[in-house]
Design brief:
By secondary structure, this protein is an alpha+beta fold. Helices cover 28% and strands 27% of the residues. Helix 1 crosses helix 4.
Length: 327
């Protein structure tokens, strides 16, 4: 069962020590930096895009510890739930973790994150879009094949078979049904359910973007590229662009804040600085931004907060101190 938003936030409240970004570029004078690696998977779909990224190599071990110790009944203070620089990224972390652990369990991949004895493959990053889930790292295709193609021992489990290739990825589809396609390579596992397109089409788009055969979102849209440059280099990153901004139908995270509902795009990221301090970065493109309203909203729960607006570009930063005792 997929946890509710309140359940996710309740757990995320206890895990904010690991989910809250270091430095962020100013609006006026940004240095040219390489886009984050996960952006190579992202392509615009019908002029829109939504994603969640988790740098599991850096936050994973502590995330599992915090999840095991978290109290799901603990109330989340309203100031954190109402802050776009905390709630969406915290929710994104938990939703990515549970998606792999719960949804991918039917393919015997649910323990990739926490069972070193079961898998030699190692996970470095988790990327979720509206149509697919990417597990990046050092993969052992043979052991993944063994899990995907095994005979189902119970009704919950599903059996897949290798049916095709896309670029450097072997493609697996269900023996019964056509609702998913799984791509397996040495660098990643891509699971596509293709709610908007067929699973194979969704898989082709992601793999094509990764291998450079499909135009990436950062190449197609200067606005999206700017958003990632300004706030996308965190350890937990969430973003919405185009017609996915403030989406409520099938949204990966809740970013439906009134002050941002007319935004062209929004990216928010969180990262721990150390055991006691966390910082966040935020970027949005808003037509006619309300500086006073955004100043009260963005980083409202932080100990230190700053916001800069130039024309339609909005960037904000926040720092949270003694987070272990407060979140």
């Amino acid at each position: 069962m997929t946890p509710s938003r309140r359940e996710l936030l309740a757990i995320a409240g206890a895990t904010a020590t690991m989910t809250a970004v270091g430095g962020w570029p100013t609006v006026a004078a940004q240095e040219t930096v390489d886009p984050p690696t996960y952006s190579q998977w992202l392509a615009l779909e019908d002029d829109g895009l939504e994603f969640v990224f988790v740098d599991w190599a850096n936050v994973g071990d502590e995330a599992i510890v915090e999840l095991e110790e978290a109290d799901p009944d603990e109330e989340v203070p309203a100031e954190y739930e109402d802050d776009p620089m905390v709630a969406p990224a915290s929710e994104g972390l938990l939703s990515a973790y549970f998606f792999l652990g719960v949804d991918l369990a039917q393919y015997r991949l649910g323990r990739l994150l926490d069972d070193e004895d079961a898998f030699e493959s190692t996970v470095e990053g988790l990327l979720r879009t509206t149509d697919a889930f990417v597990v990046s790292g050092e993969m052992q295709p043979e052991e993944i094949d063994e899990q995907l193609t095994a005979e189902p021992e119970i009704e919950f489990l599903r059996q897949l078979e290798r049916t095709d290739e896309i670029g450097e990825f072997d493609v697996y589809t269900p023996v019964e049904g056509d609702d998913v396609a799984v791509g397996v390579g040495t660098d990643a596992i891509v699971v596509a359910d293709g709610e908007a397109d067929t699973p194979e089409t969704a898989l082709e788009t992601l793999v094509g973007a990764w291998e450079g055969d499909v135009e990436r979102a950062i190449e197609e849209s200067e606005s999206f590229a700017w958003l990632l440059e300004a706030a996308g280099d965190g350890e937990v990153v969430v973003g919405q662009y185009g017609d996915r901004v403030a989406a409520t139908d099938g949204a990966l995270v809740d970013m439906a804040f009134e002050e941002l509902e007319d935004a062209e795009g929004v990216v928010s990221s969180l990262t721990p600085e150390n055991e006691d301090t966390a910082s966040g970065a935020f970027a949005a493109i808003v037509d006619g931004p309300d500086e006073d309203a955004l100043g009260e909203l963005l980083g409202s729960s932080a100990d230190q907060q700053s916001i800069t607006i130039v024309n339609d570009q909005v960037v904000a930063a926040g720092t949270w101190s003694e987070v272990e005792n407060r979140f």
